[in-house]
Amino acid sequence: MSVQTAPAPTPATASATPEALLESLRELLGERLSTSAAVREQHGKDVSFHEGFPPDAVAFAHSTEEVQAIVRLCASHKTPIVPFGTGTSLEGHIAALKGGVCIDLSQMNSVLQVNDEDLDCRVQAGVTRKQLNEYLRETGLFFPIDPGADASLGGMAATRASGTNAVRYGTMRENVLGLTVVLADGRVIKTGGRARKSAAGYDLTRLFVGSEGTLGVITEIQLRLYGIPEAMSAAVCSFDTLEGAVNTVILTIQTGVPVARIELIDEVQMDAINRYSKFDYPVKPTLFFEFHGTEASVREQSETVAALAEELGGSNFVWSTLPEERSKLWQARHDGYWAAKALKPGAGGWATDVCVPISRLAECILETKKDIQASNLLAPIVGHVGDGNFHLTYLIDPDDPDELKRASAANDRMVMRAIGMGGTCTGEHGIGYGKIGFLQAEHGEAVSVMRTIKQALDPDGLMNPGKVLPA
Amino acid sequence: MSVQTAPAPTPATASATPEALLESLRELLGERLSTSAAVREQHGKDVSFHEGFPPDAVAFAHSTEEVQAIVRLCASHKTPIVPFGTGTSLEGHIAALKGGVCIDLSQMNSVLQVNDEDLDCRVQAGVTRKQLNEYLRETGLFFPIDPGADASLGGMAATRASGTNAVRYGTMRENVLGLTVVLADGRVIKTGGRARKSAAGYDLTRLFVGSEGTLGVITEIQLRLYGIPEAMSAAVCSFDTLEGAVNTVILTIQTGVPVARIELIDEVQMDAINRYSKFDYPVKPTLFFEFHGTEASVREQSETVAALAEELGGSNFVWSTLPEERSKLWQARHDGYWAAKALKPGAGGWATDVCVPISRLAECILETKKDIQASNLLAPIVGHVGDGNFHLTYLIDPDDPDELKRASAANDRMVMRAIGMGGTCTGEHGIGYGKIGFLQAEHGEAVSVMRTIKQALDPDGLMNPGKVLPA
Question: For chain B, N or C: smaller number of CB within 10 Å?
C-alpha cells in the first residue's frame, strides 16, 4: 500500500468566495472582516511544516450568533468555511485548501461560568488553556489537558488534543462535557450537558470532539475541572536500554500507581535537553515522572516507582517536591522541540505522532530508530509513554529536498508500523490534511461510515473541506 | 410541556416478519431460530415495569458473520431487528415494538483476547461482566463497571451503562476502546483500536456506545482493564440531613480523594436495608464508601473522608478493610432493590434514574421526596452520588392503577426537574421507549442531528425501531 504523508491538496481558487458574500460579511462584521494578505497568510498556515493555503477572507466572530450568521451567509453562497483558534495545529488543519472564509474565534475568549462544586466550567471556544488556568487560579481548581502550545480550548476540542497529563486525566474526549456547535446549515445545537454522565441519546459531544471543524464550528465548551493536588513531585530516572524504561512504565501502570505524567526522552533528545537546558543527566533513555496527590501519597508513589525502576535497570532515580525543581524539569521537557532544533542550527523541525499499545512501544520505537539511522536522518524522540504515544522531531535541512523526502518516507513506514501493531496514525495531533492518506489504512470500512455522517451533516462539503476524510 | 413517561408504542403486527424470511433464517441457523411463544415472550420483556412486546422470532447467533447474514436477510425483507444480550435493561429496550427478529447474542460469549501489559481485552458481545471478571481472576486485572445486574458487555456498551464504580473508573463511554458493529445494511465495521488514545477521525466508538441497537448490532468490544487494587476499604457514615451527606460528597471529590464508590441511601431505603440485611444502622441519610489503593493510601483516604464527614455532621463513620465486612456492606447495597420491595410485600418495583450536577443534588432529591410524600407514594432512594445520579424505587401495588398513574406523574416531574437543573433524564439506564418522551426536552435541536444520523445509517428504520428517537 502506497501512502503519502502529505498528498498534494487541490489548490485554492480565487473564485471560491464571491464578492457579494464579502459585502454581506462586511456589513455584518465591519472591520472584523479582513481580506488583507498578511492576515490571510497568517490564518492559512499552522505551526507545522505543511504548506499553508490562505483563506480568501478572515471573519473575526464575537458570539455564537455571529458565527451562525457567517455560516449561513457562506452556506448561501456555497463557500467553504475554516474555523481557526490559535493556529497551533500540526497537520495543516487550518489550510484553506478550497479557499473560502476563515472564522477566527480567538476573540470569543470569555469564561462564561465556573461551577466550583461541580468541578466544571463553560468557556467560549477562543479561551486558551493557559487563560483558563489563570482565571481559575483563585478557585483551587485547574484544567489539566496540556498539549504544549497555548491552544484555544475550541481547537483542542476540535482536534481531540491531549498531552503530558493524559495518562492520569484523559484527553479532550474524556474532559468535554458538552458543546455548542453551529452546523453547516446554520442551526445551533447544544450537545451533552452538565451531568457527569448520561445515557440519553447519541453521544454527539464525542462526535464533534475530534471532527476538526468538518461537521460544524464549536463555539462553546463545557469542561471538567479538577482540584489542584495538595502535593506534586517530579522524578527523573535513566536507563541503559529503552526496554528497561518502557517496562518500568508498564509495571507502574499495572501496579495502579496513579502517575500524572510519564515522559520518555530518548538518548538523542536527552543530549539535546542537556545542552539546551544546562542539565547533565546521563545521555541515555530517560523517564520524567510527575506524581499528584497528598504529601503521603506522592511520597509513596515516588518510592514505589523508584523501586520498580531499580528492578528494571533504572539508575539515579531522583525525586523532588520542590516547585522550582519541578518547574525546571518540565520547562526543559516543554522546551524539547527547541532543544532538538538547536542540535542542527538552521534546520526545520517536523513533529510526528503515533500511538501504539504499550506492549509494542519499545519495539515500535526501536524499529523506527533503526530506520532513522538507515535513512541518515536526525530525529530525537519524546513520548507520552503512559499512553503509548511518541513523537519524533525530524530535523530537516530546508535546502536539502532529499532529506524531507527521506523523512517523509520514514514517517510513512513508522505510521504503517504503528497501525500494524494495533495503534493509530495519530495519538493527538489529528488528521488535518497531513495524515489524510492513513485514515483508510487504520479504519478500513469504518471510514465509509464517517463519510456517510459527513455527507448527512454537511451535504455541500463546506465545512473545512479536504480535512479528515480522503476525497 | 406535557411529557409521557411511557408513550403507548405502536403495537406489533404479525405481518412484520414474512414466512420466506423465517425460512431463510431457519436454513442459516437450524434450531437456533426459535418462534416458540415462550422464547419470544422472554425476549420481548426486560426487567422493568414496561410492557413487553415479543418479537416474531428469535435468532441465536454464534459469530459476527452470522449476525451479518441475519441482518442482511432481515434488511432484504425490510424486517425490524432487535439485539438482545441478557434482557436486564430497564426502559423497554428489547421490546419488539414493530415485531421482527430478535438477535440473541448471549451465545457469543468468548473472551477473545486479554492483553495484560496493555490492560485491555476483546470480548464477544454476549460475555457478561461477571463472566469476564471470573475469567480475569488469575491475571490480577479486573473490569470495574458494575451496573448491578450481570448484564452482557454488548448490552452495557449499547446502553452506556455504569453503576457504583463510575465515580472513579468512568462509564462504558470511557472504558470501551473499540467495537465491531454490524450495520443496518450488513456491512461490518471495526471502530476505535487498541491505542489508549487517538485523534484519527470521527469517534464512531462513542457514537455506537449508547445507541441502544438503533444504529447497528455490536458484536465485539475492546475494553479497558485495571489492576486489582492492593487494598480496599469500605466505610459507612450517617447524617442528620441529606445536605450534610451531599456536601460531604462534594468536598470529598473537590479534595481529590480518589474514592472508588460513594453511595447515598436515604432514610427510607436505610430502614429497608436494616430490615432486609439485618443491620442496625441509624435510620438516617447514609453514605457507603469504598476506597481503592495501597494500604497506606486507603487508610489516608478513609481518614480524610472521616474528617470531612464529621465536619459536616456525619456520625458513626466506621471503616474497615476486612473483606467480609466489605462484602456484607456491598451485598446489602446490591440487595437494595429487594430490600425496598420487602417494605411493601406484593408491590412491583419501578426503578427510576436521573442525574444532575452535584451542586443541585440535595435540592433535587429533597423536592422529589416532597413530591413523593404529597403523592402518597412509597419510593426509597439510592444514589451514585459521586456522579449526581440517583434512583427511586417506586413500590407500586399492581392492583391499584391509580398508584402507577401517580408514580408516573411524579416521575415526569422529577425528570423535568433534573433537566431544568442542567441534568439528564437518564444517568445510566438509557432511553429505550420508556424515556423517549424526554429526549427532546433535554437535547432540543440536537435531537434533529441524532435523527439525521439515524436516517443516514438506517434509512429504512429497521434497527430497534421505536427506541431512543421519538417518532
Answer: N
